[in-house]
Amino acid sequence: MTTPTSSTYLGWMLKGHEYFLSCLTPVSDEELDGPSRLPDWTGRHLLSHVGHNARALARLAHWAATGEPTPMYPSPSARAEEIETGALWPAHRLRTFVVEEQERLTEALDRITDDRWQASVVTAQGRTVPATTIPWLRSREVWIHACDLPSGGDFTAFPDSFTDALITDALDRRRSVQALDIDVRADGRGTDVGDGAGTCVEGPAPDLARWLTRGEASPRLRTETGAPLPQLPPWL
Fold this sequence. Notes:
The protein is of the alpha+beta class. It is 50% helix and 8% strand. It has eight helices and six strands. The strands form two sheets. It has a four-stranded mixed beta sheet with strand order 4-3-5-6. Strand 3 (182-186) and strand 4 (192-193) form a beta hairpin. Helix 1 (6-24) runs parallel beside helix 6 (133-146), helix 3 packs across helix 4 (78-86) and helix 3 (43-66) packs parallel to helix 5 (91-110). It is globular.
């Protein structure tokens, strides 16, 4: 797979935001009061998170553009506190919040000049990454969380190139951070992801992406040996 560029990430981010909104539109305010597809979160928690995530990533974009260190969150507890505070807002405010914060993030990214896209910033997990990673992080949020809305979207709607990148990203974390010895092979893609030494899981690319990021195994996934799929801990 070719290495995506910052313009590719930006394109995925903007399309993902549009997809998120298309999945949000048919969800009623009453449904947002109920559970999302994420444990212990209502739909309002989810919207609060998506909006506040854009705000936090805009801080990283400012860091990249100016060289002034502006962390995503002022403290380790700030992320959870922001989400809980926003979850108390009325649904109409949260809908507007998601749109406005995405617009602010896009504007902040637009202020990063060509020579600053390789500037280093630090994520909420403490990873030092180039600024090109910022729109990738946002792309993951909006595409995946569109599927966490009540009656939300589906991984089959993701662009193939984004799905491939998501599989690689999720598997890299599973292998390096969580030390899981797994490989994957997407049907019809002609490529394997992994080093060939671990348990190989095969199946449609959207199903692999859902399994690697959400731990949800579809009946279309299988191992080469016929053994049960490995149990996955939370991704992030």
